[in-house]
Amino acid sequence: MNNHLIIGLGGTGGKIIRAFRKTLFQEFRSLKPDAVNVGYLYVDSSDEMMRIDDPSWKTLGTSVQLDMNSQCLVREANLGAQLDNINNYPGIRDWIGDRATWRTILSGMDVTKAAGGQKRRLGRFLFACRVSKFKELLNLQVSALQSCGSVAVTFHVCTGLAGGTGSGSVIDTIAQIRDLYSDNANYRILVYALLPETHPKANWDTGNYHANGYAALAELNALSVGAYQPYDVAGVKKRLSTSDPFNGCYFFTNENANGLAVDVDTDVPNIVADFLYQKIVGVSKISWPSLARLENAENGDSSPETDALGRNKERGKKFLAFGIKRLAIPDDEIKEYLAYSFARQAALQLAFNSWQDAQGFLDEPKNVDFATAVRQRECLQRWRISDEHLTLSVGILPEEIKDPHWKPINQEWADVMPNFKSLVREEKEQVWLDELAKMCEQRYEQNYRGLGVRKFYETKLSARKEHAREIRRVIENDLFDEWRNGASSMHDIGRHLDALLAFLNERLSASDEKVAQARQGEEAAGQQVAARAREWAHIGLIGGLIGRRNNLLDAQAASLQEQLTYRTRTEAWIFAKGLLEELISEINSLKTDVGSCASMISEAVKDFEDSLGERCSDEAQDLRMQLVRFYDSNAVKEVARMLTRDAGVQAGQAAVVRAALLQQLGENPTFAAFNNRIPKQRFLDILEKNCERSAVEAHNNLMAEDKNRTPLLGMNIVEKLYREYGGSTEQLKKYIIDLVARAGNYVTFEPLECTKSAPGIRAGVPTCITTFTVVLPKTPENPQFMTTLKEMFQGARDGQVEILESDVKKNEITLISITNLFPIRFLKAAAFLRDRHDLRVTGPDGSRVRLEIYTEGDGTQFPKIFAASEGEVVAEGLPFVLLGKCTGIIQASRMNGATKLLLLTKDEQGFDNTPIQLGASIRESAEKIVPENVEKIRDAVRQSLTRDFANDDKRAELSKLIVSEVESIKAELGGDVTDPTYQRFLNAGRAAVKLINQPR
User: Fold this and answer.
1) Does 680 have pLDDT greater than 80?
2) What is the DSSP letter of 867?
3) What is the mean pLDDT of residues 941-967?
4) 305 pairs with which residues across the strands?
5) Cα–Cα distance between 158 and 194 in angstroms, integer?
């Protein structure tokens, strides 16, 4: 099994890793499938995409976020403090550059939090401060990969070149990997670099955007030819020798060769991820030998282009471009469409639970009379909000309900009176009424429920919050059960609570009247008690009156019972009023909780609707696109409609969703717990994950029931093509030819550069070699059509077409073009980036810009990406021609009766070389200069400056000679300081003086 480590640098690198992991999970429902062995390392100066809860890493409810040991945050580094003590930091000391310039740059930045900020050298600094962590994580990932048995690892380094972090750290990332793993046969390094787009999005270009891209290209080129051996940012070694730093470097843009422009932020990472997926996973079980040869530049002459004399390597050719096109039945998109259809239905059930056979669950509530429902006796009893409950005639709290001595108010007084009368009759008849009154008063004041009526209700009033919360608990549990079993929706529950609140407020408003009615009843009963007491006082002691006294005692007991009942209810309704106030507050709180749930579910419905709108919306196939969707979107929508109208399917899948949500709430689910434990993103995740399973199951059941229906999922693309074109070979051939014609690389080449001939560019060497590969899914069921299809692909373009058969993705055909063995100058974008770079570095802050965009020096030390044009040869050579003339290396001599300037040099032994004829004058020599002569003059001048002009006096004298020579040119031109020829010599003279005074 091959080992692969994908390293993402900066935002672009992170997005590529994210897209790759999503693709991997969507295909295998696992991030570690048996077929591949992949590790990851994401390096960035921003933690935005590293957060564990970043929703952008979610796919159908599952996060594919990286583990902490795959993330390297390069931040929290104080460059200003390190500049103050630069010698204490050998990892940055030798390349960081002018400290004064850095202080100017840093004056407006918070460096402890700054990302690369489109300053490549700052990005390098941030990487340097965390390079030990990078190496630790790198070794950890490699060890984990190798634990499976295979030693070889391919490093895939992905980055954009426009920013500061990724572009600024790519050179050191390559160098550090190669330093740790020097065997380039077992440890291959492949780079994937996004070139800056011509027209960046708003606010993306803060100044260095395009200049960064060109500087990065110059450094990658210099690294590839050995002209850039970067300092060891770890501070352990001096420079890192990287004779073979990378096997190959892919360049890509947001436009392909056929003019298709894609979004840099969203589409490009997916395209690169698809390319990586095909290389790492798609062909993991089959042989693709040509790929390694291409990426190792073994299919031709990879020797770099050189300088004019062929001595120094200048322009490497280990660069590649790729194009990828997928013809696919978009299983993932179809699955997502069905899943989001189901998720929307589940959310609508949760929200409204309003079903209509023609449409499924509706986005509107059912018509229910909740006002009447909350007034039903059964509801009042169940929710403990009847008058008897509110007045505590019967208990509300569990201990009250369980108390065997607790009786309703009426029953309490009805039960005590017979006992009181029995006790009274044991006394003298004269005192029966007085004793009965005392017993009743004592019961009322002291013994009623152990406290006396007034004390009892005063005590309970102080505990009214507990009673209100208990009633809320009972109501909430009941309503939650209704929602749990699918009988009520969240909207229904909210309306139910609205009706309940209205009813409770009515009862609160009527509570004072209830108190008044009880007092009136008490007063009326009191009058009866007083009347019987007066009658009792007039009864004599004559015989025969005993029966009358008994009757009067019974009547008085009945009146006292009625009076005490009313007195008790007066206190009870005073308590009920306070309880109602507290209960209304609790129910309002419950309504708020339910409202939050309902609002979140409604938002989710809208999100699912938006997700549906983004999928399966194709009106026609677009063969230009990287992913060509080969399916009938209307058929997908029709199946989705059928399934959403199936009451049994939707009721079942909604029940699955409710069960999954309830698992999040623990043993005591409440609406508050729902809000606290199921934020919107988790709610979406749960519905997406469960509804995907339900949707796939429903699709498969439908297909099993209807054998004549073409499946939407799990179908082989070859079989799909056969069904579509099996009866029309000509139509299929045209379709394949059109498809292949639009499969272009994601770079454009400049024809003038590709055909250029110049010194240092070997003639007759094949460059820019393109190979085309078609990956077909294995289809043993239809060998004849498979043979026809292969022949059509092989005949669809010039040159050889390689056919591979894979069993990884049966729903797609992948077309891959790879072009290699070209120098960077072939890229059309390179000239644009060069022009933007030159414009940037020739401005008033040019030296500062160079410090920002190059990781070392000012960039002039690196070989140029482009072979010099004739004008550039003259411009570059003229300072050396002037120096040659003034140092005596170029001298005038008579030849065949005419004066000629000769280049006089000596060989290694000190003998004269054959003189090289230049022009008749310094002006003519400058106009006719050729690259070979420039190189020879440059070598001779540099040797002379080092050998003969070491001290200041001689350098000053030579500078005066240069000025004199330029002045003589001006004189020849009649003193016209605006003459273009004079201007060229003036600039050359200044450059020559600068060369003279360079430290050696």
Assistant:
1) yes
2) P
3) 87
4) 315
5) 8
Which structure tokens are listed for 646? 């199936």
DSSP 451: T
Q: Which of 970, 1000, 986 lies closest to 879, judged by CA? A: 986
Q: Are strands 58-59 and 62-63 parallel, antiparallel or unpaired?
A: antiparallel
Count of H helices and E strands in the chain? Answer: 36, 20
The alpha carbon dihedral of 415, 416, 418, 419 has a sign of: positive
Per-residue pLDDT tens digits for 772-795: 999 999 999 889 999 999 999 999
| Contact status, residue 131 vs residue 234, Cβ threshold 8 Å | yes
Secondary structure of the chain: what % helix, strand, coil (to 5)? 55, 10, 35
What is the average pLDDT value for the chain, to the nearest integer? 91
Give kind and range of the element (H or E) at residue 519. helix 490-537
User: Do residues 478 and 671 lie in contact, with contact meaning Cβ atoms separated by under 8 Å?
Assistant: no
pLDDT, tens digit, for every residue of 261-288? 999 999 999 999 999 999 999 888 888 8
CB 970, CB 982: distance < 8 Å: yes
pLDDT of 113: 46
Distance CA(801)–CA(773), nearest Å, equals 6
> Whole-angstrom Cα distance, residue 178 to residue 927?
45
712-752 residue pLDDT tens: 999 999 999 999 898 788 999 999 999 999 898 999 999 99
The pLDDT tens digits of the residues spanning 588-621 come to 999 999 999 999 999 999 999 999 999 988 767 8
Cβ pair 166, 201 in contact under 8 A: no
Structure tokens at 195: 């070139």
Helices (H), 377-489: 377-382, 387-390, 398-402, 409-424, 432-442, 453-462, 464-484
The residue-averaged pLDDT of 683-689 equals 93
What are φ and ψ of residue 819, in 5° steps?
-115, 130
- pLDDT at position 802, please? 94
Calpha distance 493→474 (Å, rounded): 14
Amino acid at 798: D
Token pair for 959: 């500078």
Provide CB contacts within 8 A for 942, sequence distance 6+. none
Q: What is the pLDDT of residues 767-777, one digit of tens each?
A: 999 999 999 99
Let me know: does 886 contact 958? Beta carbons within 8 Å.
yes
* Phi (first) and psi of residue 594, to 5 degrees: -65, -40
Q: How far apart are CA 596 and CA 364, in angstroms?
A: 17
Q: Where does residue 890 rank: exposed (0-12), middle (13-18), buried (19+ CB within 10 A)?
A: buried
List CB contacts of 149: < 8 A, sequence separation 6 or more.
1
Whether the per-residue pLDDT at 543 is higher than 50: the answer is no
Q: What would the mean pLDDT of 803-826 be, rounded to a whole number?
A: 94
What's the pTM value of the predicted model, to 2 decimals?
Answer: 0.81
Task: Please check whether residue 234 is in contact with residue 135, taking contact to mean a CB–CB distance below 8 angstroms.
Answer: yes
DSSP 8-state class, residue 231: B
pLDDT of residue 284: 80
Distance CA 394, CA 580 (A): 16
Q: Cite the DSSP H helix spans in 795-890.
A: 828-841, 846-853, 870-887
> How far is CA 90 from each of CA 103, 232, 684, 859, rounded to the nearest angstrom?
19, 9, 50, 21
Q: CB count, 10 Å around CB of 443?
A: 18
Q: Tokens 């072939």 sit at which residue?
A: 826
Quote the CA–CA distance of 124 and 722 in Å, as a whole number.
54
Q: Shortest CA distance to 193 belongs to which of 175, 223, 220, 211?
A: 220
What's the rounded Cα separation, in Å, for the pair 796 and 623?
15
- Tokens 């693309």 identify what position? 717
How far apart CA 187 and CA 174 sit, in angstroms, is 12
In whole angstroms, what is the distance from residue 176 CA to residue 242 CA? Answer: 9
- Which alpha helices (DSSP H) does 248-352 contain, by range? 267-277, 289-295, 331-351
What is the reported pLDDT for 692? 93
d(CA 451, CA 448): 6
